[in-house]
UniProtKB/TrEMBL annotation:
Residue stretches making up the NAD(P)-binding domain: 8-193
Record InterPro entries: NAD(P)-bd_dom, NAD(P)-bd_dom_sf
Source organism per UniProt: Acinetobacter nectaris CIP 110549
Family matches, as Gene3D superfamilies: NAD(P)-binding Rossmann-like Domain
Top-level taxon of the source organism: Bacteria
Protein's UniProt name: NAD(P)-binding domain-containing protein
Amino acid sequence: MSHVFIVGGSGQVAKKLIEKLSKSSTPVTAMYRNESQEGDLEALGAIPVHADITQITTDDLAQLLKDSQADTVVFSAGAGGKGGQEATTLVDGKGLELAVNATKKSGIKKFILVSAFPEAGRSKGLGENFEHYIQIKKQSEYFLIQSGLEWLILRPGTLLNDEGTGLVNIGLALPYGTITRDDVATTLAALIQSSGLKYKILELTQGNETIETALEKV
C-alpha cells in the first residue's frame, strides 16, 4: 500500500484527495503552511506536517519525507494568484524544484505534479500575471521531467466546485475544457495506485468515460 506525502496539503484539491485516500485506508501526510489548518487536515485523516515550501531547506524537506515513510510525493502547492508574479515564482517554480530535489535526496521515486492546462483562461485575456503563471508551470514540468524521478504530470482544465461525476476525458493532448476539483482528486487517487503508469503528461477535462477506463487508454 502506498503512503502519500502531499506538498500543499491544505489546498482544495489536496483536501479532497486526502479524504479519498483516507477512505481507502491509504496513509497520507499533508504538509501545510498556516498553523490554523492543522485541525482540518487531521479531521480529514491526514498526518499534518507544518512547513512552508518557500522557507524550508532541501535537506529539511528530505528529512520530513524520510520520516513520513512515504513512497509517493504529490505536489499540489500553488500561489493561487496571490502575491503576484513573485509568489508564483517562489511557490509554483522554486518550490517545485526544491520538492523535486528533496524527493531525490530522500530516495522516494514516484512524484506527481498537479500542473495547469496550457490554454486555461487564455481567451479571457487574463494578462501578464497569468502568462507568467503558465510560463512557470511549463518550466516546472521540464524540471521534473529531467529529474530522473518516476514522474507523472496532471494538467486539469479550469477547476469547478461542482460535485464530481466520475466521467472524464484523459489524454496526452485534449481540447480545452473544465473539470471539477472532486474529479481531479479522484484521478490523482487512481494515479497514486497505478504502479505501471509513469513518464506521462496527462490532460484532464470533463468527459464521458470513467476515470478507470480513461486511464487504461493512456
